[in-house]
Amino acid sequence: MNERVTASLNSYRILPKVELHRHLEGSLRLTTMLDIAKQHGMTIPADVLRLSTLVQIQEEDKFTFQNFLSKFNTLRMFYRSPDAIHRITREAVEDAARDNVRYLELRFTPVALSRAERFPLHDVIDWVLTSARETAARYNINVKLIASVNRHESAELAEQVAWLAAQHIQDGLVGLDLAGNEAEFPSQPFYGIFREARQAGLHVTIHAGEWGPAAHIREAIEELGAERIGHGVRALEDENVTALARERQTVFEVCITSNYQSGVVQSLEAHPLMQMFESGLNVTINTDDPSISRITLSHEYYNACDTLQMPQYTLKERIVAAAQAGFLPANEKTKLVSQLKKELNL
Question: Where on the phi/psi map is residue 2: left (φ > 0), alpha (ψ -120 to 50), or beta?
């Protein structure tokens, strides 16, 4: 890495940060995967570099959503024990804290974590909650959790996850997310589940307008009750959808590097983050899957300002906007926002 990038990255590392869109399953350390593989006698490449080609995006990869999602198929092999799930959660929170993230919403997919060893869903949720809470206290970072369900899996499974999530709102499990392949699987089977989740007190964020058209963003807002949109970078393709999102003050959880690596945009420079912002959309900056993309949130702040020419002052405002969009109780939110404004001189 050249010196200018390193110097510049350091200036972003010291900023206090807010992350609204980070997947636990995309946050595994390579060294941890090797340890788990050894403990469980798994047949995988024995060195970090060869393993990395299976679970991280490489420069020579085809940048398509199929390739991006394929990394998760390998990652699913590592959720082999309660200890492994505890460790993965602990390290994801620790890595965020090291990058000076003050408030983290970590989303996780209970069905994915349970599948390798057929763990009960309620156990998996308990393990993630327990480790996130303990690590957050140790590193003085505020962490809330979002349960994620996939479009390609059954509505029955999603209903179970939503029901369990609603039972854990007081424990910091504050939201429900619909994720996965929106290009090939519809959202319609999940309408009723998300309506009930909202009635139970869960917040709602929906992956939409990433690999599918702007119409999916309208559907997420109007039919699924989305307060926030995961990605949503195709909103500008339909001015009516842009107007709706503006009017509803819908928050966009934008993930610059991920959108490039998964083929949503043709280059980092072509990312529409600034056009979205200039169109009056409430954008925030996030990592999506830091391990798969080999980035930190500091890298994404660097990309926003140095690659996409977002003014530093605007970045600081977007950090505060992310705090204001967090799914956290009013008293915690007020405290976080005022602390950030003070540190960022806003």
Answer: beta
In sequence order, what are the residues at sequence separation of 6 or more whose Cβ sits closer than 8 angstroms to the Cβ of residue 7?
A: none
The residues that bridge with 208 in the sheet, in sequence order, are 231
> Could you give the CA distance from residue 147 to residue 164 in angstroms, rounded to a whole number?
9
Number of domains the chain contains:
1
74, part of any domain: no
Residue ranges of the chain whose pLDDT lies below 50: 1
Question: Is residue 79 domain-resident?
Answer: no
Among 237, 172, 230, 226, smallest CA distance to 203 is for: 226
Query: How far are the Cα atoms of 53, 99, 286 from residue 10, in angstroms, in the given order?
Result: 27, 10, 18
257 contacts 296 by C-beta, under 8 angstroms: no
Which of the following is catalytic: 19, 210, 253, 300?
Answer: 210
Q: What is the CATH number of the domain that holds 268?
A: 3.20.20.140
For residue 276, what are the domain limits? 3-29+88-337
Note the pLDDT of residue 20. 98
210 given a catalytic annotation: yes
CA 199/CA 209 separation, integer angstroms: 25
Q: Where in the chain does DSSP place strands (E)?
A: 17-23, 101-108, 142-150, 173-179, 203-208, 228-231, 251-254, 282-285
Could you tell me if residue 191 is inside a domain?
A: yes
What DSSP character marks residue 159?
H
Model confidence over 92-107: pLDDT tens digits? 999 999 999 999 999 9
Cα 289 to Cα 95: distance, rounded to the nearest angstrom: 12
User: Which pair of structure tokens corresponds to residue 320?
Assistant: 């505060």
